[in-house]
Every structure is written in C-alpha cells, then in structure tokens.
Design goal:
Strand content: 5-15%
Structural class: alpha/beta
Helix content: 55-70%
Shape: globular
Distance between the termini: 75 Å
Radius of gyration: 26 Å
Number of helices: 25
Strand order of the largest sheet: 5-4-3-6-8-7
Largest sheet: 6 strands, mixed
Number of strands: 8
Length: 573
C-alpha cells in the first residue's frame, strides 16, 4: 500500500474496509468463550433478572435493585437477550458493535481534523488493533459503549466548530450524545466532553462560540434525555439511590481507592503506553512531535510543492487532540479509585495523534527525506516481538498446570518470532507502510492463540464448568456458599441464591444484596439454617470451612471441582 492507494480510494470504500477489518478484530468469534467472572456475568445476570421481572426501568441484581451503573447499557443487553436469546455472543455483541462504530467515528474525526485519507485510515486501524480496544470490545462492560458516546459528543462539537453552517446542529448533537453517555456511566458522560470543549475554546479564546441557540437547545435536550431516569429512581428509592449511585459511584471513588495497588501517579501514563500496544513505540515520538508543533511557527510551503507534500499549520488540530487527552486525564488522575477503563475515552485521540505523525513521516519519505525515527521504532518493535516470543515460552512453563497443553504457546512463540523477522525485513527495505500494517500482526496472534487455548483457559476465567458439575450433584434450592470472587458467576450459571464467605473481609466496594459471611459465627449460623450446605470456593476458603466446622456437628466432604474452584458438601450430623 502506498500513498496513491489511499488517495484513489473513496471514503466509502475505506470505511467499508475498516469495518470488515474491525469485525474480525473486535467481533468475530465472540461466542467461543463462556461469560467470565466477575464482571461479565454481573451485567448479564442483571439484564437476565430485569427481563424475568419485566423491570425495564430499574437495574436488578440478586433479586434487588442496584445502582452501580445507569440504565442504558442494561437496556441494550436486555433487548439483545429478549430478541436473540442468552448466549456469550449476544451478550458481547453490543460492546463489539460500538467498538466497530468507534473505529468509524475515529476515521471521521481524523478526517475532519487533517483532511488526509491515510491519516484517517491509520487512525481507525491503530485504534482497532490496540490491545486495550480489542479487550474492551470483546468484554461485557459499559466502557466501550460509554467511550463511543463521549467520542461522538466531542466529534459533533468539532463538526459544528469547523463548519459554521452546521454549528447549531453540531452543538445540539454533542449535548445529546453526552446525555446518552450519562445514562451509560454517569456524570462523567458530561464532564469529559465538557472539559475537552472548554480547554479547546479557552485556547482559541472563543468561549463566545457557546453563546448561541444551539447551546440552549442542546442543554434542554440533554436534560430531557438524562434527567427522567435519575428523577424516577430518586422518587422510587430516595436515599438508597442517592447513597449508592451518587455517593458510592461518583464521590466515594474520588476519595477512596477500590484497588490500593493501582492508586499511584504512574498508573494511567503507563496504561496509555501499554494499552496502545503494538503502537506504543510510535506513541513516544508522536507525542514529542506534537509538542514541537505547538512550540514552533508554521513552515512556509515550497513554491512548487505537490498537494500531498504541502505543509499545514496543524497546531489547532494537535492542540484539540491534546485537549481531548488532558481534559479527561485531569479528572481521572486525582481520583483514588483507578481502573483501566476510566481513562479509556482518551484512546481515539491517542490513535489519531500517532496516525498523524506516521502519515507525516510518509510525506517525508515521498519528499526523499530520511525517516530515521520511524526506522528506529520499527527495530525496537522487532526486539519487543523477540522478547514476547521468549516470554511466552517462560510463561507457558510456569503455568503449565493451567494450560495443560502447551501447543498454543509454542505456536504463539514461533509466529511472534516470525513476525519479528517480517517487520525487520520490511523496515530494512524501507517498506514502511507494510511494516506498520505488519505490527498489528501481534494482535491477530493474540486472538488466534486465545481461540486455540480456549479449552484450557476457560475453566480458569469462567464459573461455567464448575457450575455444570455442581448441578449434577445437587438439585435442591438451598443457598450456595461461594468465595467472593465467584459469587456472580455461580449465581449466573446455577440460578441459585448465594452467600459469600470471606473471613475478615470488608465486603464489596459497591453494595451487593447478598449475605456476606466474614466471621466464623456468621458461617456457623448459615450452616445451621439448612440441613446440607454446598460451597463452591477457592482453596483458602476450603481451609476456613475445615477450621470453622472442626469440633461442631458437621460432616465436610470434598466432591471435586475445576480450575481452582472446589465443591464442598457440609451436612449436619
């Protein structure tokens, strides 16, 4: 592929090509692995219970209302299950579908910014093949859907800003997309786009842009879309809704770390670097290039330069992308609760910045200028692939008891090494376009390896196997005792009421309407409440149960298990 390939292709064909590639990267084979614990089964269990109770307005989990997330994502899941039935592919359809939409939105955003087809295409391709985008497109989580609505809100604003005749429509659509983002994940759906817009308008000294009828209409539409559900939940559940939704989800996460090990200054910078893999090594020079562009005056065009080689003052476009990143980063960085998904909406901007840098390097090549940085990044990536190949063999040896069959590991290791050679050859011959597209091969290898290793890794990431085994042992409706990490999966796959054993544990960060047994006395009280109690627990909880029942009138029997999950039968004597 060279410059002419992109120039000669229409937008429709380029977007179609991106769509086909995105389908294979983000959706193909999504039904192979069963729904995993603890998060995928949480959302799907909630949708399943909502459908059973015909509760289209209130999220439900473990037979009780819950407010960990707003309603929009649950609407999507419930609708999908109602129309197509419950399956892993149906559950994962919406994140993958929105992931594909996000690739198209990133293409459109890159084109509006730079009006370069190659930049636009590379932006979408880099995003879809990045590790974090691949992971969140294939997981039943709110984050992909939320991120795309945030991206849409930002893109509609820029559309209205760039084309004055579309100003009113752009602002109104920006507010509308922001409102749906709020219904997907809360108030950050407004905060993120608003921060990006305000930072950019302050830089442009153009806050007056917001003084128009589009803003008034947009605010009104935002309230019409976002407020009714929140008002209804408050009217029905009062302080419970305020405490669980506003305080626990929006305020407490700012003040208290859900995962203490992640609460450090370098978590999000490191995540952006590793999340954009395999493009991380190009991200560094792209960021440096963006900084230099902001600091220097625009270059004059050569008098006889061809159209594709003309230099443009791209400082406004670069600043807009940096405002996108910084505007979101400024809110997530100070918060003590840090998760990979919180900073996810910055990745379209990161992908566009990298694509813009790479496209300019391609221009330099057309102008017969050396591209040493691009070549060095390519060679570094080769070394990285060789390291990945070796690390895969070491990891396979360490986790041999989990994988059982190391054939997928050997295949991944060998193909990673082969890919390193391929990238090296393309780089050596200065076939940089081919080299760049070859970099995405590592993402393809990860997918292929995951499919091949499915029989060996699924029991470790899902509760389906152990639940199927348990259902052949007991057909009663007694409460099942489970470890904290497994409670959602056991409930989903068995449809049994559950209680959590977690001695000296502090409970869930978000409220769960399930019995929480964190003392010996609570465990003994539950055992006394039914003639036979079954437990599906991790090894540490097996030791807890043996210790607690010692000296009491109970017979404890180990019935087997699967992938570190043990089935225990405890009977009153």
């Amino acid at each position: 592929m060279d410059r002419d390939f992109f120039q000669e292709m229409s937008h429709g064909r380029l977007v179609l090509l991106l769509g086909v590639l995105a389908y294979f990267f983000l959706m193909f084979g999504n039904g192979i692995v069963s729904l995993t614990h603890p998060d995928e089964v949480f959302y799907v269990q909630s949708a399943k219970e909502m459908l059973a109770r015909r509760s289209w307005w209130t999220p439900v989990i473990f037979d009780e209302p819950h407010f960990e997330k707003p309603i929009f994502f649950f609407w999507l899941l419930t609708l999908g299950i109602k129309v197509f039935g419950l399956s892993p592919f149906v559950a994962r359809f919406w994140p993958a579908f929105f992931g594909i939409l996000g690739v198209g939105a990133t293409y459109a955003m890159a084109w509006m910014l730079f009006e370069r087809k190659r930049t636009a295409f590379l932006s979408g391709f880099i995003l879809m093949s990045s590790f974090i985008y691949l992971a969140l497109s294939r997981a039943v989580l709110t984050d992909m859907v939320f991120s795309i609505w945030v991206t849409a809100s930002i893109a509609f604003f820029y559309w209205g800003y760039k084309f004055p005749r579309r100003k009113t429509r752009g602002v109104i659509l920006s507010f509308a997309a922001s409102a749906i983002a709020v219904l997907t994940k809360g108030i950050l759906g407004f905060v993120f786009p608003a921060a990006v817009v305000l930072v950019f308008l302050v830089y442009k000294k153009d806050l007056a842009f917001l003084k128009n009828k589009g803003t008034a209409a947009g605010v009104f539409l935002f309230l019409v879309i976002a407020l009714p559900w929140h008002i209804s939940m408050y009217q029905q559940y009062g302080d419970t809704f305020i405490r669980e939704y506003f305080y626990n989800v929006h305020i407490r996460r700012l003040l208290v770390a859900e995962h203490l090990k992640l609460d450090n200054w370098y978590f999000y910078p490191g995540l952006i670097f590793f999340g954009i893999l395999p493009w991380s090594f190009f991200w560094i020079p792209a960021a440096v290039s963006a900084y230099k562009k902001l600091m220097q005056k625009p270059e004059a065009d050569p008098p006889v330069a061809p159209p594709w080689a003309k230099k443009r003052d791209r400082r406004d476009q670069i600043f807009f992308l940096l405002a996108w990143i910084v505007g979101i980063f400024a809110f997530v960085q100070p918060a003590h609760s840090k998760l990979a998904s919180y900073v996810f909406p910055v990745f379209p901007a990161v992908a566009i910045l990298i694509a813009s840098y790479l496209d300019e390097d391609m221009e330099d090549l057309q102008a017969k200028k050396a591209s040493k940085v691009l070549a060095v990044c390519g060679y570094i990536f080769c070394v990285f692939l060789a390291g990945v190949s070796a690390a895969a063999l070491v990891a396979g040896k360490i986790y041999m008891d989990i994988l059982i069959n190391l054939r997928p590991v050997f295949i991944f290791s060998a193909l990673s090494l082969l890919l390193a050679v391929l990238v090296f050859v393309f780089n050596l011959k200065r076939h940089y376009i081919q080299m760049l597209f070859s970099c995405a091969g590592i993402t393809v290898l990860l997918l292929v390896t995951a499919f091949l290793a499915k029989p060996y890794i699924e029991p470790w990431v899902s509760c389906k196997d152990v639940s199927d085994l348990f259902k052949t042992m007991d057909h009663s409706d007694s409460v099942v005792m489970t470890s904290k990490f497994y409670v959602r999966g056991i409930r989903f796959y068995t449809d049994r009421k559950t209680a959590v054993i977690d001695i000296n544990g502090k409970g869930f960060f978000s409220p769960h309407p399930v019995a929480f047994l964190n003392t010996d006395e609570k465990v003994l009280a539950m055992l006394a409440s039914q003639p036979v109690t079954y437990a599906i627990v991790k090894k540490g909880n097996v030791h807890d149960l043996k210790r607690i029942t010692r000296g009491h009138p109970y017979r404890l029997e180990e019935l087997g298990g699967s992938a570190g999950k043990y089935i225990i039968r405890i009977e009153k004597i």
